[in-house]
Amino acid sequence: MKTFWDERYKAEKYVYGETPNAFLASKLAGLKPGKILLPAEGEGRNAVFAAKSGWEVQAFDWSEEGLKKAEKLADKEKVHISYQLGAMEEIHYEPETFDALGLIFAHFPETNRRVYHQKLSDFLKPGGYLILEGFSKAHLQFNTENPKAGGPKNEGMLFSLEDIRNDFPDFHWELLEEVQEELKEGEFHVGKAALIRAFGRKKKTN
């Protein structure tokens, strides 16, 4: 899979565009900037937007080509992002470091997903926010009909509402929904999509 993403991100243009994910952008607009973590950040569109909005940004991905594109975009927009290269198993931050966690189309193998999600949750401060958008299991019908709609072809890597509730049990949900929308994000998120959206706050410990 690393080879797949390196090949995709080698293109000169930004294959998912240079503008941020609309759901992430809408939710960040209502939050006081602090420290944000963006896993599986790819070409950096969301990291650069967050930095331009006043956030201190940490991001990571296992694609070296993605990192290069992200740093190039940050230079173009004259902002600083801290971007690590590595797989989930190699990434470590101090517990309870971040004020927000943005998981935008960050899909992991079903066998590891819950462990990865809990690891990422541990990096979030109590009272910190999770912003998640990803493809639901119903999306298979859309990317079968239209490959440009994007998303994994493996149903196990797609989300259900129950998956999110189970993977993030220590959150109060302000929004947790499944929707169908037309995506227009670069070249590979184009067309009708079935999405899971979540916006929640990590419970504070007594």
From TrEMBL:
Which residue intervals define the domain Methyltransferase in the entry? Answer: 40-128
Spell out the Pfam families in the cross-references. Methyltransf_25
Q: Which Gene Ontology BP terms does the record give?
A: methylation
Against InterPro entries, the record matches this protein to: Methyltransf_25, SAM-dependent_MTases_sf
Q: Name one GO molecular function term.
A: methyltransferase activity
Report whether Methyltransferase shows up as a keyword of the record.
Answer: yes
User: What UniProt keywords apply to this chain's record, in alphabetical order?
Assistant: Methyltransferase, Transferase
* Protein name per UniProt: Class I SAM-dependent methyltransferase
Q: Which organism is it from?
A: Cyclobacterium plantarum
Native organism taxonomy: Bacteria, Pseudomonadati, Bacteroidota, Cytophagia, Cytophagales
